[in-house]
């Protein structure tokens, strides 16, 4: 018997249950919907457990990497500078301070979606702290309005928020890099030519609430490949689970693109470069 010849389920239900068939049909549909929701929930739970397992297995690897990196001058500074998405947040005024960077670590909380980034510095002429850290949490600070809905329990894509500002004790106003290069966003400028860059890297520590620069997520992606970046390696396998190197959002593989169109190599020269701040 072909599929077209099979009786519809409602017809079978009517034959078996008469006038109650519609109620049984509704009950079956509700049961199927519950099953779909349960399957989706189990997939989300499995993803969170898998992510947590991955993070635990990576801990000794990253610890060993930190020990090796401590013997390489400016390992962490070079790694950040060689990573395009992170380098855009390093203003020229930051470069000397970041050369005093001794280690970067990322620690995840009990809820693996929350994490803290720690930057350990050697003695430097800019600020007194040896460690500057920033937490990203699922709980938005009171400054975020309107108050967003709580994150779903197993949603790995849930929004994280910058926790309260991290104080930096600058040695003097002249050494306050956030005053020399305050935060600037391209969206705040009427013309793109007016945009000189996002300002000092250290502005991020003062911010709370929505991570408008997405530096937290970018640091997560960078951290998994810090060695490759420090070594200046061009890329990693595109199939990498971390998907940390696919940053070219402007690349368009549209079918409408003319494959014979001449490429204007002068475009590279048109890209805005970092401007030295006085």
From TrEMBL:
This is BY PROTMAP: gi|342320295|gb|EGU12236.1| Protein phosphatase 2A inhibitor 2 [Rhodotorula glutinis ATCC 204091]. Pfam families: NAP. One of its GO terms (biological process) is nucleosome assembly. Signal peptide: none annotated. GO terms for cellular component: nucleus. InterPro entries: NAP-like_sf, NAP_family. Residues 258-271 have a biased composition (Basic and acidic residues). Residues 236-257 have a biased composition (Acidic residues). SUPFAM superfamilies: NAP-like (SSF143113). Belongs to the nucleosome assembly protein (NAP) family. It comes from the Eukaryota. The gene is FGENESH: predicted gene_16.68. Residues 236-278 are annotated as: Disordered. The lineage of its organism: Eukaryota, Fungi, Dikarya, Basidiomycota, Pucciniomycotina.
